[in-house]
Automatic annotation (TrEMBL):
The lineage of its organism: Eukaryota, Metazoa, Spiralia, Lophotrochozoa, Mollusca. This is Fibronectin type-III domain-containing protein. Keywords: Coiled coil. Gene3D superfamilies: Immunoglobulins. InterPro entries: FN3_dom, FN3_sf, HEPN_DZIP3, Ig-like_fold.
Amino acid sequence: MTLSKEEENYVRLSLLLTGISPRAVRILFDGTFQPSSLEKTIKQNYNKLSELKQRKQINSPQWSLMFPAVQGQTGTPDSTTFDVTLMITLLRNCSKLTAPRNGYDDMPGPNEMTPAADLARIKYYRNYLAHASENKITANFFKTAWDEISSAVLRLGNQQLKDECDELRYKVLDQSNTDILKEIEASKEEIKNLQFEFDTFQEQMTNNMENWHFKIPRNVKIQFASETSLKVEWEPPEHTDHLQSYKVYWKKTTPDAAENCKDVPKEENCTTLDGLTEMTNYWIRISAYSLHMQASSPQQSFRTTKGTNSAGIHLLSNVGSVVLGGGSIHFNIGGLPPQEIQGNINLSSHTLSMNQQNQLPLNQFNTRMPICPSDNIATSSGESQRKRIKMDD
């Protein structure tokens, strides 16, 4: 296969942007984020990076490279595994680089020679090449683009990389280089097919999402089973058609904690999570799996206790009323047998209504309120049970 001059320009520019310029970006990256402290830097920016992931500016494979422990992998983050897109994303969001005058998404002016401006140049031409309608580059565009990119490579990297740029610009392309064009054409066709499949799947998911809220597990309750285990209960979704199974997910609330999963048959609506760490906060959620769909309950936090005599209930959905008066708090817990509410109730994440006017966090009172059988609680499981708790004056 003989390439035209314009096709050669396309291949050379592709090699420059995929083979040489990423190494220049990595030199800047490693100089900004020292490899020995890269893991610490990434963890310090966890919240910001999580927001970028939610906005689809960081994808799942990139996230796994930054937080390998979350995916059950070993090792620490290594910039040599980061693609140029991820490195630029981290540099623009987690470093002290001054952004170009027009931002990172537009071509910077010819007089801007800062590292951030050079990142924007490389990003601009990578996007241009990725969205080119045909695999050809005109001579004028090629000259301008090459001069811009190779100069950026020199400023970000070093003279050795610039020499490689000059060699690539004029060297004779062998068969392996010309085969790149065939691979690019095949890749673009494959991307079109994947896009069609994705669009079809997305349309199907959109139809399913119309009934999504009817497929979420309901009334999730979390109780102490022991100091290292929790009992999780729920009601089936309102719509159980095509329901296949449940999955219970839990993990510690620390940023780098790995998420655990337990399968539960569709016929069961409770399970016990064993092997937990006492006095530790956990995130817990339940997903109902059906055909082409996963519907999850809202994520809830719960703290394990210490000692074998504690028992409690996490959700206060059964609280019927709360009344203030005479320096005491009175509240009703409906439908709970006495043995289910012995121990402590954690109210730290709830809000207490005062005379339907003021809202006061319960953690300003006693956030763990002891309840004992001797506290004159009704024994009928169908009746409301009243508990009087003294407040500090």
